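Q: What structure does this chain adopt?
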Amino acid sequence: MFVISCIYNFKIFLNNTTNFDEFNKVNTMTHLNTTSNLPKTDSEQDVAIHYVLDFTRCHEHLIDVIMSFDVADIERSNDGLSLWLPTWIAGSYLVREFSKNITKVIAYDETGRAYRASKSAKNRYEFADIGQAGRITVHYEVYCHDLSVRTAFVDDSRLFGNFTSLLLMVSDNERASACVHLHVPQSFLAKNQGSSLACGLPHVVREHEQGVGYSLAPKEAFEYYDYPFEFGVQSLFDFTVQVADKGVAHRFFIAGRHRADLTRLSADVQKICQSYADLLGDVPFTDYTFMTMVTGSDYGGLEHINSTALITPRTDLPVGESDVPSESYQRFLGLCSHEYFHAWWVKSVRPDVMMDSDLQTETYTPLLWVFEGFTSYLDDLMLLVSGVIDRASYFKLITAQINRYYKTDGRRHQSVAESSFDTWIKLYRPDENTVNQSVSYYNKGALVALCLDLSLLKHSGGRYRLFDVVKAFYDKSKQSDDKRFGMTDENLSDVISSMMGADAWQDFYHSYVVGTDELPLVSLMGEFGAVLDSQQTQTAWGMSVDENSDGLKIKHLHRGSIASGAGLSVGDVIIAIDGIRASGAGIKSALTHANSVVVHAFRRDELRTFTVTCGTPTRHESVSVRTADYQEKGWLVFDKWLKS
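A:
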């Protein structure tokens, strides 16, 4: 049976309020009445706040959330009650305004009197003079129709959620003991036979006539924000990562239609995870859960304390793979590698300002290049270290990173430290000018990490590498009471200086971290057994276009290019060049035999005429990476990484 002993009799509420039309739709809530007196498990004793997530209206993309607590069990500064919801989720640095999906919030006291919340801020709900004692029950609905890994999505076949967008906190009681109960109705179970729950938390399952309930292990209320869940029909495999003399269980769930070779996927992911454990000495969790949603084209991942939520195109999963994974399958393995490493490098070690963030206002740090940049470098490198890909495949991956960097003009204007600090207003809000003015701390951060890895090798005589920096900080986290450590610019400088020398680190830091000097990729990689074959690529007009039946729509213009000098703008649709219908081929050859051409283009709904004159083409560096020499000092010689 589904135990919800904390929920007050909803029949009283229905009988004592006249403004409850929306809630009357949820007639399956009556099951809460008949189970209110069942015994609680030992782990549920003395829990201050209970949450029930009812998925009866999942076909409307709605979750009904009921929270219940006794006034005597919470802290209150006055007679009122204040509830709030985060505005962003850890690991994704953009204010996403989760409260926009909450319809209304109504609270009830023990007499059945209803109180409708007033708003004191965009994410804060206030109840004045709600009562001095007794049990309070709060009911609200949340609209859940975001397929990304950052919020929540429910329909008649899938129930997925991050609690950051679902659970209201009681102000001043964020660390109160809490328990979350998930109620899955019989209608969902009948349609999705064989469904399972994926979550990083242990849970108790209880069946009852209305469906099935899952009671997640009690935690401090705020801690639930790091434990997403997924329920539905899923493929599942598990494997073990060996750490010293113990095996650590890993579970891998896949939702959505697919034909993946799970045996191959299990073997490859296990190798990657085992390699991280070998290099770092142990793991910061007792078990780990991968949750993967398969769609036609979506892609992304988000790290959590002992799990990750992933979304991937089904074409990225392994089907009939050769010994060397295809490029699409490598992309998925890189995603798994990236999010898994974050258990050490974001969850255990994190920027100091994010040690105790309340997720309500932006938290600024110049260090995201360390956490996402290091990870974006090491995620692909670990595919090679683990033996999942070969060196030729790895060189293709690093070549793609380098060429993306060279195509980003903003690298000359914004440092990776500035990019980190500005993530709230730039990285997650790209526009047509992004590549002109800014740089990604993922992309350039990965290449700064590569240069730092090689610089450590160089200045320490081969004694230290980038993983030694990671391990030094991870060891600091293990020594703290809460197994976390906050990084600052100062302690980062101390650790790296101890390995490569203070002068060398300061030169590196000022040139490539807070400065915008061109990265010394050719010289550094050349010192450690790799060659960058370089060539100049050019675009005559300095723009990129989308070609369709309407013409050529300009999607990007380089500053100082021929096209921008002629007055063309992003969004213009070029329809003719010298009286000939515009085409991609026509753009390339237009200035070959003439000093200038006349261009007709629509700007919005107005036809404009431009004269494009020959000039200096826009040029970009382009490279390919190959091996010159695998000597003892070679960059891709890994035996020294595995030193005790």
